[in-house]
Amino acid sequence: MQTTSAPSQTHGSAGRGLTRDEVMTAGEVAELLGIPVSTVYYLARQGQLPHSRLGRTYRFLRPRLEAMLEGPER
Q: Which contiguous run of DSSP H or E holds residue 28?
């Protein structure tokens, strides 16, 4: 089975792993964005929110969400 994923954060130039503050649940994302949790799941399933699946749970990386919210660099 082939999977696609972003490069591991633990092998970055700084060699540090992710912190608890950087990994968010759907509820935390909903609070951050001011939208219902059901909408967070919907947007994730549609590919509009960057996320990872861990079994049946969704996890979101704060740096990726912040980069998405900032939009493209000009």
A: helix 26-33
d(C-alpha 10, C-alpha 19), whole Å? 11
Buried-exposed string 41-67: b where 16+ CB fall within 10 A, e elsewhere: bebbeeeebebeeeeeebbbbbebbee
The amino acid sitting at 35 is I
What is the distance, to the nearest Å, from the Cα of residue 5 to the centroid of all Cα atoms in its chain?
A: 12
Phi/psi region, residue 56 (left: phi>0; alpha: psi -120 to 50; beta: rest), is alpha
Give me the pLDDT at residue 17, please: 82
The pLDDT of residue 15: 54
Q: Is 69 strand, coil or helix?
A: helix
Domains in the chain and their CATH numbers? 19-70 (1.10.10)
- Strand (E) or helix (H) holding 37: helix 37-45
